[in-house]
Amino acid sequence: MTVMAWVLVLTAVGTLPAVVLGLLPPAPRRQRDVVPQAVVVLGAGRTRWGGHWRLPPAGLRRLAVGAERAAQAALPMLLCGGRKRRLGPTESALMGTLLERRWPQQQAWLEQRSRNTWENARYGAQELRLRGIDSILLVTSRAHQARAALSFRAQGLRVEVISADDSLGPAWMPSVGALALLPDIYYEWMALVFYRLRYL
């Protein structure tokens, strides 16, 4: 096969959900008898559009899934996410504003100091312990689950993790969404190695 043919084959394989999902970091091992006392939603960054700061699609999905699960179980929420630059509102402030509009009855606290997942866990755990909470339902994206669970469990919390991802479609049908997930998978594997070396 020519180089071009191999490129086409690899690109086609990289669009299959069954293949791409198999490359994800392993899902966190389930902890037994976790009874969540709060739902924790992790921010997914901020985007600026039309002069205003907004949540990206991943952040909107995480917030919606977290709010629905919190409402079902009558649990409070902790929204985690600061900002890496000083401009504009924090991720958690953006989530909080949207939560007030769409789910006005839902109680939520904001953690606004964190700049990465480890700080989400560190500062989030402080906020939770002030309220006597040590067991949580953690909402994030599937690719991010392993690193997020590792970080929060390292703070001594009991954690059940759920993902807030759109379906990639049938396992063996090419999907643009599957192809778009590849950079996130690469990043998460690199981040897991970094976290192991720096924090654990």
From TrEMBL:
It holds the Pfam family DUF218. It comes from the Bacteria. Residues 37-190 form the DUF218 domain. This is YdcF family protein.
